[in-house]
Amino acid sequence: MTKHRAQRLAVWVLLALPAFLAFNFVYRFGVNVLSGDDWELVPLIDKWFAGGVSFDELFAQHNEHRFFFPRLVMLLSASALDFNSHALMFMSWLLMLLVAALLFAEHRSTFGKSSASMLQWVPIAWLLFSARQYENWLWGWQIGFFMCVVSFVAAAMLLQTSDRGAWRFPLAVGCAVVSTYTVGGGLGVWPAGVAQLIVLHFLRRKALGNKHLIHLGLWCAVAALAAGLYVRGLRSNPAHPDPAYVAHHPLEGLRFFVAALGGPFSHFVDGALAAGTVLCVVGIAVLVVWRKGDLDLNRASFAVPFCVFGATFVALITIGRGGWGPASGLSSRYTTLIALFAVGVHRAASSVRTERLRAALGGVLVCMTVSCLAAFFQESYALGFQSKDYHRTNAELLRDWRNRSDEELRRLYPAPAVVRERAPIMERHRINVFAK
Hints:
The chain is mainly α. It has helices at residues 3-29, 42-50, 55-59, 68-81, 85-111, 115-120, 122-128, 134-137, 143-160, 168-180, 189-208, 211-231, 245-248, 250-261, 269-291, 297-300, 303-321, 332-350, 355-399, 406-409, 416-429, and strands at residues 61-62, 65-66. It has 21 helices and two strands.
């Protein structure tokens, strides 16, 4: 094997390894049993099999979310996969694999197919498949987060190439609608698209005239309709902190925001604050480079929607969870969406023209990604074993629910009466742990 082929093979291994490790994580530690919010879907599954699910039931509020499309996917899984939780986890992995494939294909088309170019994308692969988001990997219900990411990425790619076909813009709008009605963070697709279209207009107005401005107007109109439908009848959760808390405590709000930005790199507040600060500093450095005219704007423009989307989601959880302190913003469940901000910063840094500065900024991001994710790797497997043992016990309890006390059933759901009411429905339809 020649040296060139060996180098290329090594790069491909580095790119593929995180996806394999994430698959292995789901395979080894995923358990087919209902957990938490899963129980809320059981009455809907009963109606689904009876043919009586309404649009309002699919569109109903869940916490701050309009969970329409994930509900629909999970109901379909009840028919096709017996509502197997482990199968939903693998579906989440497949969705992230699709995200990685789309972004990697775009990277190669922009930066070339050389080994050096592909090596530049390795940190993104490890970030997308990070075990830091272990709760999302090991909970079938969280497929909504992965649906949100794949629909956002598709929308961003379609907007970026909307000049190559009339069908791309309406399809981007459709993807944005899907992103909106998966999880609350999907609302960030609209401001991300606004920023992206404004940047594309200034870059391409000589060649395309006002085409992107027309798209911008249509995008804003659909955004207003989608957001209006989203908030119609939306109720606040009295158990959550006062959204005005961060307005009265701006420094605490800022600390929460920066820590949440660094959440994909650390689950400790100090470590997340450091990582978030690094991302902000690199982002500011890129802006300075842009002002000096040393940034390839055609390449960097694709970073805009990712940074805006990630920052919008962090702003939303800062408002909604800020009163609980910065630790509450480091939930592994948020990692899947917040990581997109780091993807955007990495793309922007990779678009710097001066090779030495580009290498310096990229090196900082690579070192942070490798050191932080490597430090969490061993702990993630310990958490995986812990989760597997916990949910295996729950599966045994659920199969034998008739002979279990309320105290034991409380492991499955805080209200044992709900388990006693809904377990027979699962038995009757032979889904989840009761499937053949």
